[in-house]
Amino acid sequence: MRKKLALAATGLIAAFALSACGSTEAAPEATASLDPAKPAVVKVGASPVPQADILNFIDENLAKDAGIDLDVVEIDDYVTPNTSLEDGSLDANYFQTENYLKTEMKEKGYKFAHGAGIHVEPMTVFSKKFDKPEDVTDGATVLLNNDPVNQLRGMKVLEQAGLLKNLADDDSVLTVADDKEKNPKGLVLKDANAEQVPQYYTKDDSIDVAVINGNFIVQAKLNKDEILAQESGENNPNANFLTWREGEETPAIKKLDELLHSDEVRDYIKKTWTDGSVIPAF
User: Fold this and answer.
1) For the segment 166-188, what is each residue's pLDDT rounded down to a tens digit?
2) Dihedral (CA of 255, 23, 10, 176) sign
3) Which of the 8 DSSP states describes residue 247?
4) CATH (domain of 274)
């Protein structure tokens, strides 16, 4: 059995919609023993690309023989997957990095556990107006992600490209915008929800440069010829992984995490994203 539900990226509305249609506890099937004849259903919330694609590959090719059946819930925002895992609407989610999860757990009190890294989506700097970083003019408008973890990550890619300097681990758009030492070009730094950044980039001509999360690059089908700089995948601490409620790593979830680190999944990632926008982390 394979199900798929796409949710609107509307923060509380999306969270309420998912919560309303789910149970308040983990699906009973997720705690069942694994039997290919009666597969245990695991409901997983995931970003559409590449996470849901990877999960659907597993569901179609590996899950049945392993005794699990994935119910893949596509979620376009970065809030709903954790609120829905917390309220029991999901058994697990697959969308986040360790730094993001640590921040969420600290700020919201979540008690979650997670597996090892599965893949990395390199943060990438795009521009339709400039061919290389040194061409970026003083006062150019740069759009970044507005969540603190990925915003700093994006600014560090700009730093590696020579557009910002001497960033600290607690820097943000607000601390850097008017700092002449850290922002010598006087770049106009703006931010928006991660899923909105590629939309503004493609539709708003006032955006000169945009720093975009890898999954949204693939989803928006952006032009790779417009890449100015890209985060390195080597020894990258920003791998995405499977997350579940602490103390609730059921046999089905454990098996899913095992399949996510299989040779078949590694090969699928390499063959599907040949442009390097998604790379295996194992």
Assistant:
1) 999 999 999 999 999 999 999 99
2) negative
3) T
4) 3.40.190.10
